[in-house]
Specification:
With 125 residues, the chain is mostly helical. The chain has 2 helices and 2 strands; from the N terminus they run ββαα. The structure holds zinc ion.
Length: 125
Amino acid sequence: MSRNEPSWRDRYPDEVTCIRCLEVKDVMELDRLLWCERCRRRARDRAGWWGWLFGLILAACVAVYIWLVIRPTDLVIGGWIATVLATAWLGSKLGREVAYGVMRFKNSKAVDAVPPPPGEAPGED
Ligand SMILES: [Zn+2]
């Protein structure tokens, strides 16, 4: 991309407040939603936890299905365990992408902001 091409960054001054942590950052560090690098990473980490939760629940459902409906014999039990593990892994990937997408879509303000110490908040007397 050439430097003369107009970009969304031109609409902002050089220093912009990240809407997640409310810290002032260089505009180059922020993305289109005005999330800074650190906030994107934190959102991804958090989405990862939701992803694993989803993956494990999905895997549990698959395990119950295999146990009750397919009724595996001892001979192939390793294959079914592998199936359940693969389901957990894939489910966690899928869940993470969905959770991250939801966070991006909701775009909640100031969720990673650190509240000011007591007594220093404005308008507090
Ligand atoms: Zn931030």
